[in-house]
From TrEMBL:
Protein name (record): Probable periplasmic serine endoprotease DegP-like
PDZ domain ranges (all copies): 254-345
Subcellular location: Periplasm
Entry's Gene Ontology cellular component terms: periplasmic space
Amino acid sequence: MDNGPTQEARPAPAIAAPSAGAARGPASVADLAEGLLDAVVNISTSQSVDVAGRGVPPLEAPEGSPLQDFFDDLLQDRDGLGNRRVQSLGSGFVVDPSGVVVTNNHVIADADTITVNFADGTQLDAELIGTDPKTDLAVLKVEPEEPLVSVKFGDSEALRIGDWVMAIGNPFGLGGSVSIGIVSARGRNINAGPYDNFIQTDAAINRGNSGGPLFDLNGDVVGINTAIISPSGGSIGIGFSVPSNLAVNVIDQLREFGETRRGWLGIRLQAVTDDIAEGLGIGEARGAVVMGIVEGGPSDNGLLKVGDVIVSFDGAAVESSRDLPRIVAETPVGKAVAVEVLRKTATDKPAERTSVEVTLGRLEDGEKLMAESDDAAPTSDPEAAETGDTDAGPVETLGMTLTEIDPTLREQYALAEDAKGVVITAVAPSSNAAEKGIEAGTLIREVAQEEVATAREVADKIAKLKDEGRRNALLLLAASNGDLRFVVVPIE
Protein backbone atom coordinates (compact mmCIF):
# COMPACT_ATOMS: atom_id res chain seq x y z
CA MET A 1 0.00 0.00 0.00
CA ASP A 2 1.28 3.44 -0.95
CA ASN A 3 1.70 5.59 2.16
CA GLY A 4 2.59 8.69 0.21
CA PRO A 5 5.96 10.35 -0.34
CA THR A 6 8.79 9.45 1.96
CA GLN A 7 11.52 11.66 3.31
CA GLU A 8 15.16 10.75 3.04
CA ALA A 9 16.48 9.57 6.38
CA ARG A 10 18.77 12.11 7.98
CA PRO A 11 21.58 11.20 10.36
CA ALA A 12 21.03 12.04 14.02
CA PRO A 13 22.99 15.07 15.22
CA ALA A 14 26.34 14.14 16.66
CA ILE A 15 26.73 14.51 20.41
CA ALA A 16 30.26 15.09 21.58
CA ALA A 17 31.38 12.47 24.06
CA PRO A 18 32.70 13.89 27.33
CA SER A 19 36.39 13.59 27.90
CA ALA A 20 37.61 11.09 30.43
CA GLY A 21 38.48 13.87 32.84
CA ALA A 22 35.08 15.54 32.49
CA ALA A 23 33.33 12.22 33.07
CA ARG A 24 35.13 11.84 36.39
CA GLY A 25 34.74 15.47 37.34
CA PRO A 26 37.57 17.77 38.37
CA ALA A 27 40.79 15.88 39.03
CA SER A 28 41.25 17.75 42.31
CA VAL A 29 39.90 20.76 44.14
CA ALA A 30 42.74 20.84 46.65
CA ASP A 31 44.26 24.11 45.40
CA LEU A 32 40.84 25.75 45.26
CA ALA A 33 39.85 24.60 48.75
CA GLU A 34 43.19 25.63 50.24
CA GLY A 35 42.62 29.22 49.23
CA LEU A 36 39.07 29.33 50.61
CA LEU A 37 39.16 27.41 53.88
CA ASP A 38 40.44 30.34 55.95
CA ALA A 39 37.47 32.48 54.90
CA VAL A 40 34.94 29.91 56.14
CA VAL A 41 34.17 30.07 59.85
CA ASN A 42 32.31 28.16 62.51
CA ILE A 43 29.50 29.97 64.31
CA SER A 44 28.77 28.95 67.89
CA THR A 45 25.92 30.44 69.87
CA SER A 46 24.74 30.26 73.43
CA GLN A 47 21.28 30.85 74.80
CA SER A 48 19.90 30.79 78.32
CA VAL A 49 16.66 28.81 78.49
CA ASP A 50 14.36 28.86 81.49
CA VAL A 51 13.20 25.27 81.90
CA ALA A 52 10.78 26.17 84.69
CA GLY A 53 7.13 25.89 83.76
CA ARG A 54 7.76 23.58 80.82
CA GLY A 55 5.64 20.75 82.16
CA VAL A 56 8.49 19.13 84.16
CA PRO A 57 7.68 19.12 87.90
CA PRO A 58 10.46 20.20 90.29
CA LEU A 59 12.48 17.39 91.81
CA GLU A 60 11.61 17.19 95.52
CA ALA A 61 12.80 14.63 98.04
CA PRO A 62 11.10 13.86 101.39
CA GLU A 63 11.73 16.49 104.03
CA GLY A 64 15.19 16.12 105.55
CA SER A 65 16.43 13.74 102.84
CA PRO A 66 20.04 14.24 101.65
CA LEU A 67 18.81 13.60 98.08
CA GLN A 68 17.40 17.14 97.97
CA ASP A 69 20.92 18.59 97.75
CA PHE A 70 21.61 16.26 94.84
CA PHE A 71 18.42 17.36 93.07
CA ASP A 72 19.27 21.03 93.59
CA ASP A 73 22.77 20.53 92.17
CA LEU A 74 21.29 18.74 89.18
CA LEU A 75 19.17 21.75 88.20
CA GLN A 76 21.53 24.49 89.34
CA ASP A 77 23.91 26.17 86.89
CA ARG A 78 25.61 29.53 86.71
CA ASP A 79 22.39 31.23 85.63
CA GLY A 80 20.45 29.98 88.61
CA LEU A 81 17.95 27.26 89.40
CA GLY A 82 15.81 26.17 86.47
CA ASN A 83 18.00 27.74 83.74
CA ARG A 84 20.09 25.88 81.21
CA ARG A 85 22.62 27.02 78.62
CA VAL A 86 21.75 25.76 75.15
CA GLN A 87 24.53 25.82 72.55
CA SER A 88 24.41 25.34 68.79
CA LEU A 89 26.87 25.28 65.92
CA GLY A 90 26.67 26.44 62.34
CA SER A 91 28.80 27.87 59.57
CA GLY A 92 29.47 31.23 57.99
CA PHE A 93 31.95 33.03 55.76
CA VAL A 94 33.83 36.32 55.67
CA VAL A 95 32.77 38.74 52.92
CA ASP A 96 34.82 41.76 54.03
CA PRO A 97 38.39 41.72 55.47
CA SER A 98 37.24 44.23 58.12
CA GLY A 99 35.22 41.46 59.77
CA VAL A 100 31.81 41.15 58.09
CA VAL A 101 30.47 37.59 58.30
CA VAL A 102 27.40 36.09 56.61
CA THR A 103 25.42 33.13 57.97
CA ASN A 104 21.85 31.84 58.24
CA ASN A 105 19.31 33.56 60.45
CA HIS A 106 18.27 30.26 62.00
CA VAL A 107 21.88 29.63 63.11
CA ILE A 108 21.93 32.69 65.38
CA ALA A 109 18.22 33.14 66.14
CA ASP A 110 17.47 33.96 69.82
CA ALA A 111 21.15 33.67 70.75
CA ASP A 112 22.47 35.53 73.80
CA THR A 113 26.07 35.32 72.61
CA ILE A 114 27.56 34.64 69.17
CA THR A 115 31.16 33.52 68.70
CA VAL A 116 32.97 33.25 65.38
CA ASN A 117 35.64 30.53 65.34
CA PHE A 118 38.38 30.74 62.69
CA ALA A 119 40.46 27.97 61.15
CA ASP A 120 43.60 29.07 63.05
CA GLY A 121 41.82 28.70 66.41
CA THR A 122 41.01 32.40 66.88
CA GLN A 123 37.66 33.10 68.55
CA LEU A 124 35.94 36.49 68.31
CA ASP A 125 32.67 37.67 69.80
CA ALA A 126 30.28 38.83 67.08
CA GLU A 127 27.81 41.70 66.94
CA LEU A 128 24.57 41.08 65.09
CA ILE A 129 24.20 43.67 62.32
CA GLY A 130 20.86 42.51 60.95
CA THR A 131 18.71 39.54 60.00
CA ASP A 132 16.16 38.67 57.34
CA PRO A 133 13.93 35.70 58.26
CA LYS A 134 12.28 35.76 54.82
CA THR A 135 15.50 34.61 53.14
CA ASP A 136 17.05 33.12 56.32
CA LEU A 137 20.10 35.38 56.16
CA ALA A 138 22.05 37.18 58.89
CA VAL A 139 25.06 39.52 58.90
CA LEU A 140 27.56 39.62 61.78
CA LYS A 141 30.50 41.89 62.60
CA VAL A 142 33.70 40.94 64.42
CA GLU A 143 36.70 43.13 65.28
CA PRO A 144 39.89 41.36 64.12
CA GLU A 145 43.38 42.61 64.89
CA GLU A 146 44.41 42.10 61.25
CA PRO A 147 42.45 41.98 57.98
CA LEU A 148 40.71 38.65 57.45
CA VAL A 149 40.75 36.35 54.45
CA SER A 150 37.49 36.96 52.61
CA VAL A 151 35.61 35.61 49.61
CA LYS A 152 33.50 37.31 46.97
CA PHE A 153 30.10 36.57 45.50
CA GLY A 154 29.69 35.19 42.00
CA ASP A 155 26.79 35.13 39.55
CA SER A 156 24.33 32.40 40.51
CA GLU A 157 22.32 33.07 37.34
CA ALA A 158 25.26 31.78 35.34
CA LEU A 159 25.02 28.35 37.00
CA ARG A 160 23.76 25.51 34.84
CA ILE A 161 22.31 22.22 35.95
CA GLY A 162 25.24 19.83 36.04
CA ASP A 163 27.89 22.43 36.94
CA TRP A 164 30.34 21.40 39.65
CA VAL A 165 30.07 23.17 43.02
CA MET A 166 31.88 22.87 46.34
CA ALA A 167 30.49 23.27 49.86
CA ILE A 168 32.64 24.17 52.86
CA GLY A 169 31.24 24.19 56.36
CA ASN A 170 31.08 22.75 59.83
CA PRO A 171 29.15 19.46 59.62
CA PHE A 172 28.28 17.98 63.01
CA GLY A 173 30.69 20.41 64.68
CA LEU A 174 33.76 18.72 63.17
CA GLY A 175 35.33 21.92 61.84
CA GLY A 176 36.17 22.99 58.29
CA SER A 177 35.04 20.29 55.89
CA VAL A 178 34.92 20.24 52.09
CA SER A 179 32.45 18.37 49.87
CA ILE A 180 31.86 18.51 46.13
CA GLY A 181 28.94 17.78 43.85
CA ILE A 182 26.90 19.26 41.04
CA VAL A 183 23.96 21.62 40.66
CA SER A 184 21.01 19.23 40.60
CA ALA A 185 18.28 21.80 39.92
CA ARG A 186 17.54 25.51 40.04
CA GLY A 187 14.58 27.60 41.13
CA ARG A 188 13.42 25.13 43.77
CA ASN A 189 10.47 26.10 45.97
CA ILE A 190 10.54 24.20 49.29
CA ASN A 191 8.00 26.45 51.06
CA ALA A 192 10.67 27.89 53.32
CA GLY A 193 9.71 31.52 52.61
CA PRO A 194 8.04 33.91 50.18
CA TYR A 195 11.12 34.23 47.95
CA ASP A 196 12.10 30.58 47.55
CA ASN A 197 14.38 30.19 44.55
CA PHE A 198 16.87 27.66 45.85
CA ILE A 199 19.80 26.00 44.13
CA GLN A 200 19.59 22.25 44.69
CA THR A 201 22.88 20.37 44.96
CA ASP A 202 24.07 16.86 45.74
CA ALA A 203 27.25 18.15 47.40
CA ALA A 204 27.12 16.73 50.92
CA ILE A 205 25.44 19.21 53.28
CA ASN A 206 24.82 18.07 56.84
CA ARG A 207 23.82 19.53 60.18
CA GLY A 208 26.22 22.34 60.96
CA ASN A 209 26.70 23.28 57.31
CA SER A 210 23.89 25.85 57.56
CA GLY A 211 25.16 29.31 56.70
CA GLY A 212 28.22 28.03 54.89
CA PRO A 213 29.13 28.96 51.31
CA LEU A 214 28.56 27.04 48.10
CA PHE A 215 31.39 27.82 45.67
CA ASP A 216 31.71 27.46 41.94
CA LEU A 217 35.02 26.22 40.57
CA ASN A 218 36.21 29.81 40.20
CA GLY A 219 36.14 30.13 43.98
CA ASP A 220 33.18 32.54 43.99
CA VAL A 221 30.24 32.15 46.37
CA VAL A 222 27.19 31.23 44.30
CA GLY A 223 24.97 30.09 47.16
CA ILE A 224 24.49 29.99 50.93
CA ASN A 225 23.74 26.50 52.24
CA THR A 226 20.45 26.62 54.12
CA ALA A 227 18.42 23.42 54.17
CA ILE A 228 18.42 19.71 53.39
CA ILE A 229 15.82 17.04 52.85
CA SER A 230 16.70 14.01 54.94
CA PRO A 231 14.83 11.47 57.07
CA SER A 232 17.90 10.99 59.28
CA GLY A 233 19.44 14.46 59.50
CA GLY A 234 22.40 13.37 57.39
CA SER A 235 23.02 14.15 53.74
CA ILE A 236 21.19 12.06 51.17
CA GLY A 237 22.27 14.30 48.32
CA ILE A 238 19.40 16.79 48.45
CA GLY A 239 20.65 20.14 49.75
CA PHE A 240 19.45 23.68 49.09
CA SER A 241 21.30 26.98 48.87
CA VAL A 242 20.10 30.58 48.68
CA PRO A 243 21.34 31.92 45.29
CA SER A 244 24.01 34.59 45.56
CA ASN A 245 22.10 36.98 43.30
CA LEU A 246 19.19 36.94 45.76
CA ALA A 247 21.43 37.10 48.83
CA VAL A 248 23.68 40.00 47.78
CA ASN A 249 20.85 42.56 47.71
CA VAL A 250 19.64 41.48 51.16
CA ILE A 251 23.14 41.47 52.63
CA ASP A 252 23.91 44.93 51.25
CA GLN A 253 20.71 46.31 52.82
CA LEU A 254 21.43 44.69 56.18
CA ARG A 255 24.95 46.13 56.16
CA GLU A 256 23.75 49.62 55.24
CA PHE A 257 20.50 49.91 57.18
CA GLY A 258 20.48 46.99 59.64
CA GLU A 259 17.18 45.92 58.06
CA THR A 260 15.70 45.11 54.67
CA ARG A 261 14.03 47.69 52.43
CA ARG A 262 12.15 45.75 49.78
CA GLY A 263 10.03 47.09 46.97
CA TRP A 264 6.25 46.74 47.30
CA LEU A 265 3.60 46.87 44.59
CA GLY A 266 0.57 46.80 46.90
CA ILE A 267 -1.51 44.12 45.20
CA ARG A 268 -2.86 40.65 45.95
CA LEU A 269 -2.11 37.90 43.45
CA GLN A 270 -3.37 34.56 42.23
CA ALA A 271 -1.70 31.97 40.04
CA VAL A 272 -2.87 31.75 36.43
CA THR A 273 -4.05 28.21 35.66
CA ASP A 274 -4.90 26.92 32.20
CA ASP A 275 -8.61 27.31 32.96
CA ILE A 276 -8.20 30.88 34.18
CA ALA A 277 -6.03 31.72 31.18
CA GLU A 278 -8.79 30.43 28.89
CA GLY A 279 -11.43 32.36 30.81
CA LEU A 280 -9.41 35.57 30.65
CA GLY A 281 -8.63 35.05 26.99
CA ILE A 282 -4.84 35.34 27.33
CA GLY A 283 -3.81 32.11 25.61
CA GLU A 284 -1.20 30.10 27.49
CA ALA A 285 -1.07 30.22 31.28
CA ARG A 286 1.57 32.75 32.36
CA GLY A 287 2.02 35.77 34.58
CA ALA A 288 0.19 36.65 37.79
CA VAL A 289 -3.44 37.76 37.96
CA VAL A 290 -4.27 40.79 40.13
CA MET A 291 -6.90 39.82 42.71
CA GLY A 292 -6.93 42.95 44.84
CA ILE A 293 -5.45 46.41 45.30
CA VAL A 294 -4.28 47.36 48.80
CA GLU A 295 -5.97 50.58 49.83
CA GLY A 296 -3.39 53.32 50.28
CA GLY A 297 -0.71 51.23 48.55
CA PRO A 298 1.47 52.11 45.54
CA SER A 299 -1.02 50.62 43.06
CA ASP A 300 -4.04 52.40 44.55
CA ASN A 301 -4.09 54.90 41.68
CA GLY A 302 -6.63 53.29 39.37
CA LEU A 303 -4.07 52.07 36.84
CA LEU A 304 -3.96 48.38 37.79
CA LYS A 305 -7.30 46.58 37.92
CA VAL A 306 -8.61 43.31 39.32
CA GLY A 307 -8.34 40.72 36.56
CA ASP A 308 -5.21 42.21 34.99
CA VAL A 309 -2.54 39.59 34.29
CA ILE A 310 0.95 40.95 34.94
CA VAL A 311 3.36 39.47 32.39
CA SER A 312 6.32 41.86 32.72
CA PHE A 313 7.71 43.97 35.54
CA ASP A 314 10.45 46.55 34.99
CA GLY A 315 11.50 44.74 31.83
CA ALA A 316 11.68 41.30 33.47
CA ALA A 317 9.28 38.60 32.27
CA VAL A 318 6.87 37.28 34.92
CA GLU A 319 6.41 33.58 34.31
CA SER A 320 4.24 32.83 37.35
CA SER A 321 2.72 34.39 40.46
CA ARG A 322 5.64 32.97 42.47
CA ASP A 323 8.18 34.99 40.48
CA LEU A 324 6.58 38.42 40.84
CA PRO A 325 6.97 38.99 44.63
CA ARG A 326 10.68 38.16 44.41
CA ILE A 327 11.26 40.43 41.42
CA VAL A 328 9.38 43.30 43.08
CA ALA A 329 11.19 42.81 46.40
CA GLU A 330 14.58 43.09 44.67
CA THR A 331 13.60 46.40 43.04
CA PRO A 332 14.58 49.62 44.89
CA VAL A 333 11.94 51.42 46.93
CA GLY A 334 10.69 54.58 45.21
CA LYS A 335 11.56 53.44 41.69
CA ALA A 336 8.96 54.11 39.00
CA VAL A 337 8.61 50.88 37.04
CA ALA A 338 6.71 49.85 33.93
CA VAL A 339 4.21 47.05 34.59
CA GLU A 340 2.92 45.30 31.48
CA VAL A 341 -0.44 43.57 31.79
CA LEU A 342 -2.89 41.61 29.68
CA ARG A 343 -6.33 43.15 30.14
CA LYS A 344 -9.60 41.92 28.73
CA THR A 345 -11.82 44.86 27.81
CA ALA A 346 -14.67 42.90 26.20
CA THR A 347 -15.95 39.35 26.64
CA ASP A 348 -15.90 38.67 22.89
CA LYS A 349 -12.35 39.94 22.33
CA PRO A 350 -8.95 38.61 23.42
CA ALA A 351 -7.01 40.36 26.15
CA GLU A 352 -4.96 43.37 25.08
CA ARG A 353 -1.41 44.13 26.22
CA THR A 354 -1.02 47.47 27.94
CA SER A 355 1.54 49.14 30.19
CA VAL A 356 1.11 51.18 33.37
CA GLU A 357 3.66 52.89 35.60
CA VAL A 358 3.77 52.33 39.35
CA THR A 359 6.14 53.92 41.87
CA LEU A 360 7.10 51.23 44.38
CA GLY A 361 6.54 51.57 48.08
CA ARG A 362 8.39 49.78 50.86
CA LEU A 363 7.22 46.27 51.72
CA GLU A 364 7.92 46.64 55.44
CA ASP A 365 5.68 49.74 55.56
CA GLY A 366 3.08 47.91 53.49
CA GLU A 367 2.93 45.01 55.94
CA LYS A 368 2.13 47.48 58.73
CA LEU A 369 -0.49 49.17 56.56
CA MET A 370 -2.19 45.86 55.75
CA ALA A 371 -2.14 44.81 59.41
CA GLU A 372 -3.78 48.09 60.41
CA SER A 373 -6.31 47.70 57.61
CA ASP A 374 -7.23 44.21 58.84
CA ASP A 375 -7.66 45.51 62.40
CA ALA A 376 -9.90 48.34 61.18
CA ALA A 377 -12.00 46.19 58.85
CA PRO A 378 -15.69 47.12 59.08
CA THR A 379 -17.93 44.81 61.06
CA SER A 380 -21.29 43.61 59.87
CA ASP A 381 -24.23 45.89 60.50
CA PRO A 382 -27.56 44.02 60.54
CA GLU A 383 -29.45 47.30 60.43
CA ALA A 384 -27.63 48.63 57.35
CA ALA A 385 -29.91 49.72 54.50
CA GLU A 386 -29.77 47.51 51.42
CA THR A 387 -30.24 48.24 47.76
CA GLY A 388 -31.15 45.98 44.86
CA ASP A 389 -33.88 43.54 44.09
CA THR A 390 -34.06 41.71 47.42
CA ASP A 391 -37.57 40.43 46.70
CA ALA A 392 -36.24 37.96 44.17
CA GLY A 393 -36.11 34.43 45.58
CA PRO A 394 -33.10 32.10 45.66
CA VAL A 395 -31.73 30.85 42.35
CA GLU A 396 -29.89 27.59 41.72
CA THR A 397 -27.14 27.19 39.12
CA LEU A 398 -24.04 25.01 38.81
CA GLY A 399 -24.92 23.33 42.11
CA MET A 400 -24.99 26.66 43.99
CA THR A 401 -27.95 28.32 45.68
CA LEU A 402 -27.71 32.08 45.23
CA THR A 403 -29.46 35.09 46.66
CA GLU A 404 -28.91 38.82 47.18
CA ILE A 405 -27.28 40.27 50.26
CA ASP A 406 -29.71 41.15 53.04
CA PRO A 407 -29.19 42.09 56.71
CA THR A 408 -29.72 38.51 57.88
CA LEU A 409 -27.14 37.04 55.51
CA ARG A 410 -24.74 39.90 56.23
CA GLU A 411 -24.81 38.98 59.90
CA GLN A 412 -24.83 35.20 59.32
CA TYR A 413 -21.72 35.23 57.12
CA ALA A 414 -19.98 38.26 58.74
CA LEU A 415 -20.01 40.17 55.48
CA ALA A 416 -18.59 43.68 55.44
CA GLU A 417 -20.98 46.61 55.30
CA ASP A 418 -19.71 47.55 51.83
CA ALA A 419 -19.68 43.97 50.50
CA LYS A 420 -20.93 43.63 46.92
CA GLY A 421 -22.11 40.73 44.83
CA VAL A 422 -24.40 37.73 45.19
CA VAL A 423 -24.31 35.44 48.22
CA ILE A 424 -23.83 31.69 47.84
CA THR A 425 -26.02 30.20 50.56
CA ALA A 426 -25.57 26.51 49.74
CA VAL A 427 -23.38 24.27 47.57
CA ALA A 428 -24.44 20.77 46.50
CA PRO A 429 -21.85 18.28 47.82
CA SER A 430 -21.33 16.46 44.50
CA SER A 431 -21.41 19.53 42.26
CA ASN A 432 -18.61 21.01 40.18
CA ALA A 433 -18.71 24.08 42.43
CA ALA A 434 -18.04 21.92 45.49
CA GLU A 435 -15.12 20.25 43.74
CA LYS A 436 -13.63 23.70 43.17
CA GLY A 437 -13.75 24.43 46.89
CA ILE A 438 -16.61 26.95 46.75
CA GLU A 439 -18.40 27.29 50.09
CA ALA A 440 -21.53 28.93 51.47
CA GLY A 441 -20.95 32.51 52.53
CA THR A 442 -18.81 33.30 49.48
CA LEU A 443 -19.82 36.18 47.23
CA ILE A 444 -19.91 36.07 43.44
CA ARG A 445 -18.66 39.44 42.21
CA GLU A 446 -18.28 38.75 38.48
CA VAL A 447 -19.23 36.17 35.87
CA ALA A 448 -16.97 36.12 32.81
CA GLN A 449 -15.48 39.43 34.00
CA GLU A 450 -18.87 41.15 34.10
CA GLU A 451 -20.18 42.45 37.42
CA VAL A 452 -23.32 40.89 38.86
CA ALA A 453 -25.70 42.28 41.46
CA THR A 454 -28.56 39.76 41.58
CA ALA A 455 -28.87 35.98 41.67
CA ARG A 456 -30.94 36.02 38.49
CA GLU A 457 -28.17 37.96 36.75
CA VAL A 458 -25.68 35.21 37.63
CA ALA A 459 -27.95 32.47 36.32
CA ASP A 460 -28.70 34.38 33.11
CA LYS A 461 -25.02 35.02 32.36
CA ILE A 462 -24.13 31.36 32.94
CA ALA A 463 -27.01 30.31 30.69
CA LYS A 464 -25.73 32.68 28.02
CA LEU A 465 -22.23 31.19 28.26
CA LYS A 466 -23.73 27.73 27.82
CA ASP A 467 -25.71 28.86 24.75
CA GLU A 468 -22.48 30.24 23.28
CA GLY A 469 -20.89 26.82 23.60
CA ARG A 470 -18.60 27.77 26.46
CA ARG A 471 -17.52 24.82 28.61
CA ASN A 472 -16.55 26.81 31.71
CA ALA A 473 -17.69 29.83 33.68
CA LEU A 474 -15.02 32.17 35.07
CA LEU A 475 -16.24 33.45 38.45
CA LEU A 476 -14.68 36.18 40.56
CA LEU A 477 -15.36 35.20 44.17
CA ALA A 478 -14.94 37.20 47.37
CA ALA A 479 -14.48 35.69 50.82
CA SER A 480 -16.11 37.28 53.86
CA ASN A 481 -12.83 39.08 54.64
CA GLY A 482 -12.76 40.59 51.14
CA ASP A 483 -10.06 38.37 49.62
CA LEU A 484 -10.70 37.74 45.93
CA ARG A 485 -9.95 34.73 43.73
CA PHE A 486 -10.85 33.50 40.27
CA VAL A 487 -12.48 30.07 40.00
CA VAL A 488 -13.33 28.28 36.77
CA VAL A 489 -16.43 26.06 37.14
CA PRO A 490 -17.38 23.63 34.37
CA ILE A 491 -20.81 24.20 32.83
CA GLU A 492 -22.87 21.03 32.53
